[in-house]
Amino acid sequence: MRYNTVMNTSINKSNKPKLTKKGQETRTRIIVAAAELMYEQGVAGTTIEDVQQKAKVSASQLYHYFKEKKELVMAVISYQSSRIIGNHSRYLTDLDSFEALYAWRNFIVDIQIKKNCEGGCPLGALASELVETDTEARSEINSSFLEWEDSIRNGLRFMLNREELNSNADPDKLALALLTALQGGLLLTQVRRDPGPIITALDTMLEHIKSFSKDK
Q1: How far apart are CA 61 and CA 203, in angstroms?
Q2: 32 near 15, Cβ under 8 Å?
Q3: CA–CA separation, 108 vs 117, rounded Å?
Q4: Which one of 2, 42, 164, 190 is most buried, counting C-beta atoms within 10 A?
Q5: Could you tell me which residues come within 8 angstroms of residue 69 by beta carbon, excluding any fewer than 6 positions away?
Q6: What tens-digit pLDDT sequence spans the chain (216 residues)?
Q7: Smallest Cα–Cα separation from 148: which of 2, 1, 3, 9?
Q8: 83: how many CB neighbours lie within 10 A of its CB?
Q9: Quick one: which of 78, 48, 46, 60 has its CA closest to 147?
Q10: Cβ distance 108 to 59 under 8 Å?
Q11: Other C-beta atoms lying within 10 Å of the C-beta of residue 76
Q12: Which neighbouring-strand residues pair with 213?
């Protein structure tokens, strides 16, 4: 098994003093509540009062941890990044063979089928709403996608070094193309309520990667 670095973003990504266990639990509950609301109804459509009610905290508790909504939004981005990469980690940490690539593909498709193709990618949803209006949020989301891309690239580089891929393969371009296909496929799958787009996008890219197989 090959060790591959994946995202290590923490829900408590902060320069503030370390919280007590109870304080950390309360802060996390607020972030999770905000993440669920923002995923369901968007950042703009989610008020501080909504989060307060869902997290079952007082206004003073919420403002103790987050002085303004933007702080909470940044915490949600960090949380969603960690959650998504965490869910994918058992595939991304060993994404170094065609078998592993197809196992990851099946995992992604199965999620969409179980969700009835609703919701799309939480990071993608945040990106579509924030990147044109919030430079800090755009930078954080971009860093998250770069971590994701890097996990794919590392696996493809390992395959190249092991000569499972031939010398014409470019892991950098292939990793970017695969992540782009994934995000575009998820968006159309969400719009159409049909897993066809994500299946087609991933299968097309994996067939392209297979065209660089050393056996061909």
Answers
A1: 48
A2: no
A3: 11
A4: 190
A5: 48
A6: 443 444 444 444 445 557 788 889 999 999 999 999 999 999 999 999 999 999 999 999 999 999 999 999 999 999 999 999 888 888 888 888 999 999 999 999 999 999 999 999 999 999 999 999 999 999 999 999 999 999 999 999 999 999 999 999 999 999 999 999 999 999 999 999 999 999 999 999 999 999 999 775
A7: 9
A8: 17
A9: 78
A10: no
A11: 27
A12: 165
Q: Which two tokens stand for residue 38?
A: 């923002």
Residue that the structure tokens 């905290």 belong to: 57
* Contact indicator for 122, 148 with CB cutoff of 8 Å: no
Q: Evaluate the CA torsion angle 24, 17, 61, 8 in order and state its sign.
A: negative
Q: For tokens 């998504």, name the residue.
A: 84
The answer to whether the CB of 19 falls within 8 A of the CB of 64 is: no
> Count of residues for the chain?
216
Sign (positive or negative) of CA dihedral 134, 136, 138, 140: negative
User: Residue 134 — φ and ψ, nearest 5°?
Assistant: -135, 105
